[in-house]
Write a structure and sequence with these properties.
Layout lengths: L5 E4 L3 H13 L4 E4 L2 H11 L3 E5 L1 E2 L2 E2 H11 L4 E6 L4 H9 L4 E4 L4 H13 L25 H14 L5 E4 L6 H10 L8 E5 L8 H6 L1 E2 L14 E2 L2 H4 L4 E5 L6 H13 L1 E2 L8 E2 L3 E6 L3 H7 L4 H7 L2 E4 L9 H17 L5 E2 L1 H9 L5 H15 L4 E2 L6 H4 L27 H15 L4 H8 L3 H10 L11
Parallel strand pairs: 1-2, 1-3, 3-6, 6-7, 8-15, 8-16, 9-12, 12-15, 17-18
Antiparallel strand pairs: 4-5, 10-11, 13-14
């Protein structure tokens, strides 16, 4: 079958030779260039369908070259290649028009799989979308804070690629939900999203759950009876997304097995002698810091760098500022509609408590609190008295041994009659005073950026001279 040529742009001769030999052996026509000028000339002359473009070039930036070539050839499918894996490079490359992101050194199988995905459309970031979709409206995700806008931008940028994504964050921050959003917006969305929880699957079953196994028949294993294979998660995710939840919980032997799957693009089920090809988009999550796991020797460095092409960190709820109120009110409406309850809003006192609480359980804890309220109380306004005891009185005993406040009338709401804007101003002024007048320190304690506080102070007629601490 006749194919349009593939352009390879790299100033390292050994890389050009390796990439060219791999693609030519697979019957691709290859054009090579060693700098931006040569790449532009050959692209315009030969009209390639695909281009492998190194990010670092002797006469400029490969990311700028991607944007330039896309301007001349809108149908071009560029793939960014670099020896340095980082989320900033990945996001910038894909915003410039790259459809995928590869990290050197490349295995020939990995290169060919990426090219095949690009040809089939599985890795195209510029896929057609429903015009009714809003780029900042993610199913199940709520938040207007600066930190979450950054998260949404990263999800938008990486969703359309085939590059692995490593999602980190505390328990309850929504890592699995973020993975589901990436899958739903990707070129793999017509395939299945298969989740394997590496922390809860029994250690003696994790390998079979990942790579599959031959079913026992008449007390024996037949390694050639492919029809008797019970596929594992890797094969079930064929042309879809494989989500390895809490991947750092894998044992060292299983880490080696996973690395082998990624290197060969195939699995050999337990009891079988026949490898089976697999092709999926990989997303991993971890509550623990994967870099710390690598440093401690509990996680393979070579596997980590394969998984961590794009790193997405989800912030804790306590670091998202006013998002907690926005999420609570939105989810309160949803729960009331589902449960047939009359609540409509939160009192100002409840909002203040929500903003002050540390939320160690993050979104999961907040949802449990709201569910408790909607089931046990009546509305239409959520009052302080409706909150679980540990939120009404953080110092009260939680073991049920004493209930000293059971027969004492609830204290009056200290925020009663105040607007949320007035409560916010009190909180900000208190934080600045507590931090000795330091705006950056107050911003850190409130979980917002210093620019937000400067803007608030200007609006209240209290500008900070030269934006320095006072």
């Amino acid at each position: 079958m006749s194919r349009r040529p593939i352009l390879i742009v790299d100033d390292v001769e050994t890389h050009l030779a390796l990439f060219s030999a791999t693609l030519e052996a697979a019957d691709y026509e290859v054009i090579t260039a060693r700098n931006r000028i040569e790449a532009r000339e050959k692209a315009l002359a030969h009209q390639p369908e695909l281009a492998l473009i190194d990010i670092v070039l002797p006469d400029g930036n490969g990311i700028d070259l991607i944007a330039e070539l896309k301007g001349h050839l809108p149908g071009l499918k560029p793939i960014a290649v670099t020896a340095f894996a980082s989320v900033d490079r990945a996001v910038t490359a894909m915003r410039s028009g790259a459809i995928d992101f590869l990290v050197k050194p490349l295995d020939p199988e990995q290169l060919l799989a990426t090219i095949a995905n690009a040809e089939s459309g599985l890795s195209i970031g510029q896929q057609e979308r429903d015009p009714r979709e809003n780029d900042t409206a993610f199913d199940g995700h709520i938040g207007s804070s600066e930190v979450m806008r950054g998260v949404f931008e990263t999800i938008n940028a990486v969703a359309g690629a085939a590059a692995p994504v490593f999602i980190t964050g505390e328990s309850g921050t929504g890592k699995v939900r973020a993975a589901e959003t990436i899958h739903a917006r990707s070129g793999f969305r017509n395939g299945t999203l298969v989740k394997l929880d590496c922390s809860t699957t029994a250690p003696d079953r994790i390998e079979a759950e990942l790579i599959g196994e031959i079913a026992q028949m008449d007390g024996r294993l037949d390694g050639h009876a492919d029809g008797d294979v019970k596929p594992g998660a890797a094969e079930q995710a064929q042309n879809g997304t494989l989500l390895l939840d809490e991947v750092c919980a894998l044992s060292m032997p299983m880490q080696a097995r996973l690395l082998g799957i990624l290197q060969t693009g195939s699995v050999t089920p337990q009891g079988s002698l026949l490898p089976r090809p697999v092709n999926f988009r990989l997303i991993c999550t971890s509550t623990t810091d994967p870099r710390a796991e690598v440093t401690s020797g509990r996680f393979r460095a070579d596997l980590f760098y394969r998984l961590n092409v794009v790193h997405l960190h989800l912030p804790p709820l306590r670091g998202r500022g006013m998002d907690v109120v926005e999420i609570a009110e939105t989810e309160l409406d949803r729960l009331c509609a589902r449960e047939g309850r009359p609540f409509r809003t939160l009192s100002t006192g409840v909002k203040a408590i929500f903003l002050d609480h540390n939320w160690p359980g993050n979104l999961r804890e907040l949802m449990n609190v709201l569910w408790n309220i909607t089931i046990l109380h009546d509305g239409p306004v959520v009052e302080i008295a409706d909150l679980p005891p540990y939120l009404r009185n953080p110092h009260a005993p939680q073991d049920g041994s004493q209930r000293p406040t059971s027969f004492i009338p609830a204290r009056p709401d200290p925020f009663d009659g105040q607007t949320l804007a007035e409560i916010e101003r009190r909180a900000i002024e208190h934080a600045i005073q507590k931090e000795g007048g330091s705006i950056p320190a107050a911003a850190r304690s409130l979980g917002v950026s210093p620019s937000t506080l400067y803007r608030k102070l200007d609006g209240w007629g209290k500008p900070v001279r030269s934006k320095r601490d006072f």
